[in-house]
Amino acid sequence: MSRTHGVTGSVSGTGKATSSQRSPDVPGNAGLWLSRGIIVGVDGSESSVGALQCALRLGALAQTTVRAVAVWQPVPFGKWGTPVYKPARDAAAILTTAVDRVCGDEVPEWFTALATQGAPADALIEASANADLLIVGTRGRAKVTGMLLGSVSSACLARASCPVLVVNNGDTYTLNE
Length: 177
What we know:
Layout: E1 10-12, E2 38-41, H1 46-62, E3 66-72, H2 87-103, E4 111-117, H3 120-128, E5 133-137, H4 143-149, H5 152-159, E6 164-167
Parallel strand pairs: 2-3, 2-5, 3-4, 5-6
Antiparallel strand pairs: 1-4
């Protein structure tokens, strides 16, 4: 059975949380840290799953919202299209799979996710304007290849409106540490 966590463009625990909501405030200034929330890019790679784990761990510690973003781009197949490639559906499936791997059946109420159309770096950079932290994974390309091809993480580091945390391949985080 395939679970979608309510995916019709987004994934959420209960559907109640939005990017402007956060868990109940704690005494002092602790609730102000990361008050605009965390954005995390998810593309289905191992490093993006690690980024999602990290984002959820930090979100729990900071008592703030976490929004996962999967970005899809249409592929031009001419006027005939293709019944096999459905990018919006595929992006939602990537989110669902990543959330299942990280959260299982216990998706936090303060977590939401969105599958959106666009260029991955541009969409994440745009989302960073309304966040206090952007977390992305790296596929761990060789230094020369990464420089020649560029990458989403490099673009985010250069242009995001908030601090960026890049999670290396193989890094894992648990929610219960």
